[in-house]
């Protein structure tokens, strides 16, 4: 599977949120989408997910656009985890996760739903009502729902934001492993250390434009961090990996 944005722009009224952005992600790749607040990351993700059409440009899924694939086909092609983390009804957790099977014609708690719960570490919550979950538990349940689609493209908007350190590491490892099995995985991330450690490639946005795309070393260099975030970073080496820590406001 290949996911490609071609000269995509997104507008809201008079405001342009994404400007003529092109980006391509091959199957087997975990891409971290970075940028300051208001950079246009969520707007881009919604267009990549087929939830809204761009003002200009287009998105291709293995060379086909959303109209060619159709709504039902798109539902099986893309799993999308939004950032709001809401569950609208007090359903048992296993039934929430099983909603990920709807694009395949059923919302039964099948083997795919059970695999997703196991992968996200929420098997023990299966019979719990979703309105009794903590924020972190709810985030992992919603990730399980996205995994249950078993789609070749997984888009996750801030999947680690509500999680404690252990579950952040586990979720990032799970997303990386999902890509290793051949999926396209794109996640909006704010933690530069996690992004640099787990992602295969990074894309950095600023003011709706793509500022940099490439490896951690290429994207999280001093110039890009200063330009996008206005910060200086400290770089450490641990277990053979470079760790990037935002450290101070750029003077």
From TrEMBL:
One GO MF term attached to the UniProt entry: ATP hydrolysis activity
ABC transporter domain residues: 3-232
Originating species: Xanthobacter flavus
Name of the protein: ABC transporter
SUPFAM superfamilies recorded: P-loop containing nucleoside triphosphate hydrolases
SMART domains reported for this sequence: AAA
Domain of life of the source: Bacteria
Keyword field: ATP-binding, Nucleotide-binding, Translocase, Transport
Family: Belongs to the ABC transporter superfamily.
ATP-binding in keyword set: yes
PANTHER family to which the protein is assigned, alphabetical: HEMIN IMPORT ATP-BINDING PROTEIN HMUV
InterPro entries associated with the record: AAA+_ATPase, ABC_transporter-like_ATP-bd, ABC_transporter-like_CS, P-loop_NTPase
Function of the protein: Part of the ABC transporter complex HmuTUV involved in hemin import. Responsible for energy coupling to the transport system.
């Amino acid at each position: 599977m290949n996911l490609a944005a071609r000269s995509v722009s997104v507008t809201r009224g008079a405001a342009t949120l994404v400007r003529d952005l092109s980006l391509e992600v091959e199957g087997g790749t975990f891409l971290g989408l970075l940028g300051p607040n208001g950079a246009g990351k969520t707007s881009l993700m919604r267009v990549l997910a087929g939830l809204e059409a761009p003002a200009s440009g287009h998105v291709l899924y293995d060379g086909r656009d959303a109209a060619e694939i159709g709504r039902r086909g798109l539902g099986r092609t893309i799993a999308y985890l939004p950032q709001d983390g809401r569950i609208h009804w007090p359903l048992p957790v296993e039934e929430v996760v099983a909603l990920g099977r709807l694009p395949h014609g059923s919302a039964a708690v099948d083997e795919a739903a059970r695999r997703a719960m196991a992968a996200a570490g929420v098997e023990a919550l299966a019979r719990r009502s979703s309105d009794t979950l903590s924020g972190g538990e709810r985030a992992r349940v919603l990730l399980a729902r996205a995994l249950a689609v078993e789609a070749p493209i997984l888009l996750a908007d801030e999947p680690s934001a509500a999680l404690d350190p252990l579950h952040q590491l586990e979720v990032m490892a799970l997303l990386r492993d999902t890509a290793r099995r051949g999926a396209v995985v794109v996640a909006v991330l704010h933690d530069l250390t996690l992004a640099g450690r787990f992602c295969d490639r990074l894309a950095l946005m600023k003011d709706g434009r793509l500022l940099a795309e490439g490896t951690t070393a290429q994207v999280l260099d001093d110039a890009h961090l200063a330009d996008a975030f206005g910060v200086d970073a400290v770089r450490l080496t641990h277990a053979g990996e470079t760790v990037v820590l935002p450290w101070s406001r750029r003077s």
